[in-house]
From TrEMBL:
Keywords per UniProt: Chitin-binding, Signal, Virulence
Transmembrane segment boundaries: none
GO molecular function: chitin binding
Domain LysM: 24-71, 80-126
Keyword Signal: yes
Keyword field contains Signal: yes
Annotated PROSITE patterns: LYSM
Matches recorded under SUPFAM superfamilies: LysM domain (SSF54106)
Signal peptide residue numbers: 1-18
Protein name: LysM domain-containing protein
Domain of life of the native organism: Eukaryota
Length: 154
């Protein structure tokens, strides 16, 4: 009984605890994932995870219909995004959007130096302006990245 009540109240609590400086938000619907929300609302997967660090768990599997998530915060809200597809590289993304190496990594600090941890469906910030983000939950990002990275035994 208590568990059922807690699961019913959880989405309501998330909308009560508003994130300071949230510039836009979205309401989770059935079937949403972090990547689908990112694609639907034009927010990088990294930014979505970062600004909702207190409410979205490491596997992004605790989203509840009716839950309100923040999409961006003041001065840290990249809205120019790109969804990674098969065979994408950081060089390709940089050339396509005319952004420097430094800007790509500044706006997407979860990308490793070799750029081999971007995954299909991940939404990246490709703005030519750099955003300075606060510390991020590296465990959350890695859980998402390694869940979606294709396995290769070659």
């Amino acid at each position: 009984m208590f568990v059922k009540l807690a699961l019913t109240v959880l989405p309501l609590l998330s909308s009560v605890f508003a994130i300071d400086g949230c510039t836009r938000n979205a309401t989770v619907v059935s079937g949403d994932t972090c990547d689908s929300i990112s694609r639907k609302y034009g927010v990088s997967t990294y930014q979505l995870a970062l600004v909702n660090d207190a409410t979205i768990d490491e596997n992004c599997d605790n989203l509840q219909p009716g839950q309100v998530v923040c999409l961006g915060i003041e001065e840290h809200d990249c809205t120019k995004v790109y969804t990674v597809v098969a065979d994408d590289t950081c060089d390709y993304i940089q050339q396509t959007y005319g952004i420097s190496n430094e800007t790509l990594w500044s706006n997407n600090p979860q990308i490793d130096a070799a750029c081999d941890n971007i995954y299909i469906g991940e939404v990246l910030c490709v703005d030519t302006d750099s955003y300075t983000y606060p510390q991020y939950n590296e465990t959350l990002y890695n859980a998402l990245a390694y869940t979606y990275l294709p396995y290769c035994d070659e």
